[in-house]
Give the backbone structure.
Amino acid sequence: MPHDGHHDHEEGSPLPEIALRVKALESILVEKGYVDPAAIDAIVETYEIKVGPRNGAKVVAKAWSDPAYLERLRRDATAAIAELGFTGRQGEHMVAVENTPPLQGKPGRHNIVVCTLCSCYPWSVLGLPPVWYKAAPYRAKAVIDPRGTLADFGVTLPKETEIRVWDSTAELRYLVLPMRPEGTEGWDEARLATLVTRDSMIGTGLALSPERVA
Amino acid sequence: MNGAQDLGGMMGFGPVAPERNEPVFHAPWERRALGVTLCCNALGEWNIDINRRTRESLHPVDYLGSSYYEIWIKGLTRLLAERGLVNPAEMEAGHALEPARPTARPTLKAADVPAALAKGGPCDRPLDRAPLFAAGDRVRTRNMNPAGHTRLPRYARDKLGIVERRHGAFVFPDKNAHRLGEDPQWVYTVVFTGRALWGEAADPTLTVSIDCWEPYLERA
């Protein structure tokens, strides 16, 4: 687990060893002309401000509202997501997987995405992965004990619900389409998007119920 | 390789610890670590599979004791040394000791960042060979333990599954990670029951899928 704290450096306290190392590395790379520090700033700004789970929430809200869009998402998720302007790094090959309710005696289905081998994650729609997604407990547990994993997030599913865990071992990146909450009839896409959490698009959460955002 | 990165099914790590209102970065150095890593990747001196191979080759104690950005920086430092871009003496000294050398691709400039990130690095490739498997086929994953890089996790080796979907052909990491060429191969989503992977005590409602390059599979 991380040595240095999960806290921003406090003024006056010594920098952790890794921080010094990164600083030294950057300064050598810049000195040798291999790295433009302004490019680092631009990359950081992209993922800190521009690209994040609001992108994915827009995709989900549109899929909930527009059956033709949902169909395009099923057929070619990369192209359907690109319609909304979300493309690029770690989103080059997208697949959307749908959570479904029980239907005609068939159990419902819940999808969970993990990368047991590293930390593959659909950056273009969810931004950078959270620490827990990249850390050993989740990567170890999700494939063998998905219900226990969900319990760590406070999520309990009906015992008959089928659970599919997608281990993203290749270059395909998965976006979970959570179920649309009840009581949202007539909501427009922007309002629906407020119900779509990052975790609901990884499968470790559900979409929020309307009273949660009221 | 059977390294510490191959975590599926391991026990003893304790519960997953989600963080409420988690910030994108937890310390300023993480911002720089992300940026430096992506800028160095853009030099074209290695590919994504070499990157993964290098991170996986950290000693298991080091790998499991490091945060993800620490793993990135440790891997990057190794790669920069391997390619003769930044040598260990320079890291020690904290400044350049040797002149820069030309790189496969030019330094990524700030103005080019949006286009580079929006383009990404697609790994699908044309392949002029018929796929061996189709959706619905029963397959067995190979029993293999290569010393080199692979993307077939240990928990899913020598297991019976069903091909659910064929994707396109993609760069084959097992070769590409070792600079042996891209050698594109068909990729399939293969589904296993929880019981096939974990035995009788497994959750009966569980299925797990992995994405497999064709050489990982044989007909069953």
User: Anything to note?
Assistant: Chain B touches chain A through 93 residues (CB under 8 Å). Chain B has eight helices and six strands. The mean pLDDT of chain B is 97. The helical segments of chain B are 28-41, 48-56, 60-64, 68-82, 88-93, 113-119, 173-176, 194-198.
